[in-house]
Amino acid sequence: MTVLWAKMLRSALIYALFLSQSSAVQHILAPSPAQELPPGLLNSMRLYSEYTAAATCPSNFNSPGYTKVVCEPGVCPMLEKTQATVFMGFTNWTPGNTTGYLAVDHTNHVLVLAFRGSRTKGNIQVDGQYEQVSIPWICQGCQVHYGFYSSWDAISQYLLSAVRRYYSVYHYPIVFTGHSLGGALAALGAVLEDWPTVVTLYTYGAPELGNYAFANFTTNAIGAQGTKGFEVRVTHTNDPVPKVLSRDEHISKYWQYSTTSPEFWITSKNHVPVSKDDIEVFYGIDNMNGNLGTKTSDPFAHNWYFGDMAGCTGD
């Protein structure tokens, strides 16, 4: 195993060590047939997975501004063809070493806020702060993961200000995206704040965010018929990360975690190109038809979403 793979799999392996075959998932839905992928969504899912992979690249998150969004050769073929420019990068924002970048894509006419997944000790510490905090000012009965919430809360005003400033110039739709921990931060940002326009959220292998009440609130805000935008929550086969918080018997003994709806479940194997026929769409909170219902876990599945989510070798 290369050093790169070892670094990218650290967080997923820690999650896998926690994973239990017993389940304390509540509000489980009965099996239901998968829905078809909406027309045109496949290319968008692939493009924003590349934006997410690019969040691992120092040239992007260390950018002083107005530099081209880049990846290592072969990692982001769609992104390389776009006119995408980093407005600003941010790195190691405490707590949690939150890292990513804000970009403008003049080819697709969007603003993109991308968050890096777990790579540093600070990232992994935040992942492990799975006790929940109540947020009644957001929604009654809602509780969220303490580590994710504290990380977003620390950077929220900085990013709100930046996004509003650039939106006032371009008036482009806003896309939030992230892989793993980055997906959790992107989701909280999309649902908790008041943005100047509706947002679209693309997450890849993101963990659960909070309890059933918060999953219900999130689904209503950015789910299939969301009032604030639309969420594309992508999972891959038996990736352990999207299900570990509700499946681990130690965590679920004290804290109840739920998944949001809808889920876009990739069924193809690792390192295999993803086609439309490889994606099944399921609706319903805590739906057991996709990733949540898998009985085994493969940490390597966490790092393959339309391509290699490693992105760049540097931290």
Automatic annotation (TrEMBL):
The entry's keywords: Carbohydrate metabolism, Hydrolase, Polysaccharide degradation, Serine esterase, Signal, Xylan degradation
A matching Pfam family: Lipase_3
Gene Ontology molecular-function annotations: feruloyl esterase activity
Every Fungal lipase-type domain range: 112-246
CDD domains, alphabetized: Lipase_3
Enzyme class per UniProt: hydrolase
Signal sequence range: 1-24
Keyword Signal: yes
SUPFAM superfamilies assigned to the protein according to its UniProt record, in alphabetical order: alpha/beta-Hydrolases
Top-level taxon in the UniProt lineage: Eukaryota
Biological processes annotated in GO: lipid metabolic process; xylan catabolic process
EC number(s) per entry: 3.1.1.73
Reaction it catalyzes: feruloyl-polysaccharide + H2O = ferulate + polysaccharide
InterPro entries reported for this sequence: AB_hydrolase_fold, AB_hydrolase_lip/est, Fungal_lipase-type
Family to which the UniProt record says this protein belongs: Belongs to the AB hydrolase superfamily. FaeA family.
Protein's UniProt name: feruloyl esterase
Organism in which the protein naturally occurs: Aspergillus caelatus
